[in-house]
Here is the input.
Amino acid sequence: MSISLTFADIIAPMDPKQFFGDYFGRKPCHIPGDAAKFEQVMSWPILGDLVNMSGIWASENLRIIRDREALPNEAYCTQDKDRRNHAALTPHPEKVKALLEDGCSLALNRIDTLTPGLRALANALESQLFGRAQINLYYSRKEVQAFSAHNDGHDVHAIHCGGEKDWIIYDFRADNPINHPNFKPSPDERDRLKGKPMMELTMKPGDYLYIPRGQYHEALSSTDQCVHLACGVTHVIGLDLMTLAWEQAMAHPLFRANVPPNVGPRSAADQRAYLVELAKVMANTMASIEFQELVTQFQANFRNTRGSVSFPVAVGPDGGPLRPEPSAPAPALAVLARKREKA
Ligand SMILES: [Fe+2]
Here is the structure.
């Protein structure tokens, strides 16, 4: 089964021109939608099927949260074998069920390859945004807050699927934060930094919310049985280009030369001259058309791999019912039959 979804579908009824002109990379945007808008992507049966695929879950990608704190693995996992037959702590379905019934929240991480709808959603985001999309799902009970005010190191495209959730977007936006300990303020610092509320809204099924990277926000489920998909889209940033630049530098003899030590009467000047030359080589490399072509290619490939295999192979999507064709016996069977007749 394949599901067709475009970025324009996701943000409808807003026109993509307006979204990219007024909001993308600039400010948050809430777009209310029809309750059925995303039901192909996520519904109660789809969520149930997902959670019940117990073989795919590990403590790293299925988390249970109580009072804003992720529970320790031992609270909901048991020692088992994973899909590679390795010993692992894996979520136990009955323990997970009991904790959810007791009011805990559930987070399913990195689910963008797991169902046709989630693949379609992630592909639609990546095809328009030139970034890498990862989808997490949050399920929470009434008036439960999974996370206090925070900012994310990537853009967030939130899709609301069940229940209602109140969001507060604050006016402080961190300056291009990244996923690194240096950019992870403590809860007290976050509370001090977040600023004043600039948008307060209630997300209902079918709604879409865009939060640019760094913008402080928090959410609290206002009804029971609340589900939303947080689609994080990471874009290529300058730091990513250091890897490309490193590969180019390797080809230049100056970058492979020994660095003059800063010891002795001439050494400081020699070292300085060397560093100035290195900087010139790197500046010329990164400003070249060839390097720009590498960057363009890198950006075009900066997306996650999701399968498009369909069966029967080479027939196309939805290739028909999985049953043998009423045709002549397969060649191998015909050969065996002839052998039996001769015997
Ligand atoms: Fe967030």
In short: The first strand starts at residue 29 and ends at 31.
